[in-house]
Write a structure and sequence with these properties.
CATH class of the largest domain: Alpha Beta
Number of helices: 12
Number of domains: 2
Strand order of the largest sheet: 10-9-11-12-13-15-16
Helix content: 25-40%
Radius of gyration: 20 Å
Structural class: alpha/beta
Order of helices and strands: EEEEHEHEHEEHEHEHEHHEHEHEEHHE
Distance between the termini: 50 Å
Largest sheet: 7 strands, mixed
CATH superfamily of the largest domain: Response regulator
CATH topology of the largest domain: Rossmann fold
């Protein structure tokens, strides 16, 4: 086996783009464009590889990956996407909406498969009908942010001042803030929008919430997803009733989660990538949208926060963690 690896300095960070050749035949190359860091997305990438393997593509055998991670600096994504396009990878996996938007701007010819938690049409990724070089899988998470506020209000009905934490560098942030704002108005709640784009800012937001807010809705963002353990720990440590979108957050100590399954979207994106590598066109593969959402409640955390969840809320949960 021969291996050549190129290190390119992009946006002040080193990005490794390996060119792998097994025997005398070059293998298919998937460019992996991510907003966060590779370690943060291990379960999602494993799900993608499982889907990819259904078409017979296995890393180290007949497919390799060019990794380009922005390490939560979303402004680096355009340059990273352009570099992947310049290197002529066979397919680009866009691991988040910001990554998909950057990949779309970088190439109109290389197939792009995305796994996202938002509306693929409203964000401008694809038209309402198949076409172009983008396809992938989406689960409902951005569009359930308002519902998460409602659920948090059910958990702490006497609290009238609740918070919404978003990442100001994420292009989806403004729409999430608007939707949750409308929901707060309808419920007669005071909504405090707080921003965080670093670990230090996340810590500061939770400390602010502990003293001034009755609870916190965590907005959809790759940074927050990569910090699920931190978010759960802060929620429990600072006694802030909090809701996010993934079960992993509840398992880490968060009070509640409500949203779709991110790993399933990556699995289905992997299936599509394999079909494209076998010769199908992205334009012929309609975006797969999962409408399934699940509610998880950590009863142990709720009791540690001095909260007795209403039975009606517990009865609607897909799982209550005790």
């Amino acid at each position: 086996m021969k291996r050549r690896e190129f290190i390119t300095l992009i946006g002040g960070a080193a990005a490794a783009f390996p060119d792998v050749v097994y025997g005398q035949q070059p293998v298919a190359v998937i460019g992996l464009l991510g907003s966060s860091a590779s370690d943060d997305y291990r379960p999602m990438i494993a799900a993608f590889q499982k889907g990819l393997s259904e078409a017979g593509y296995v890393e180290g055998r007949n497919v390799s990956f060019d990794h380009a991670w922005a390490d939560n600096h979303y402004d680096r994504l355009p340059a990273l996407a352009s570099e992947l396009a310049r290197r002529g990878v066979n397919v680009i996996l866009a691991a988040s909406t910001p990554s998909a938007l950057a990949a779309k701007a970088a190439t109109s010819t290389i197939p792009i498969v995305f796994a996202i938690g938002g509306d693929r049409v409203r964000t401008g990724l694809v038209a309402s009908r198949p076409g172009g070089n983008l396809t992938g899988a989406a689960h409902i998470n951005v569009d359930t942010a308002a519902k998460r506020l409602e659920l948090l209000h059910e958990l702490v009905p006497t609290k009238k001042a609740l918070g919404l934490m978003t990442n100001p560098t994420n292009p989806l942030g403004k729409s999430v803030e608007a939707e949750v704002g409308r929901a707060a108005e309808a419920l007669g709640l005071q909504l405090n929008i707080v921003h965080a784009s670093t670990d230090e800012a996340i810590d500061a937001v939770f400390k602010q919430a502990a003293s001034a807010l009755g609870g916190l809705v965590i907005g959809t963002d790759p940074l927050f997803t990569s910090r699920i353990e931190m978010l759960g720990r802060l929620s429990l440590q600072l006694k802030v009733p909090t809701i996010y979108q993934y079960r992993e957050f509840v398992a880490a100590g968060g009070a509640m989660s409500y949203g779709g399954d991110i790993n399933n979207s990556y699995y289905r994106a992997g299936v599509y990538a394999g079909r494209i590598l076998k010769g199908e066109k992205a334009a012929d593969l309609p975006v797969q949208l999962s409408t399934k959402v699940e509610l998880f409640i950590n009863l142990k955390t709720a009791k540690a926060l001095g909260i007795d969840p209403p039975m009606a809320l517990l009865a609607r949960a897909d799982e209550v963690i005790e």
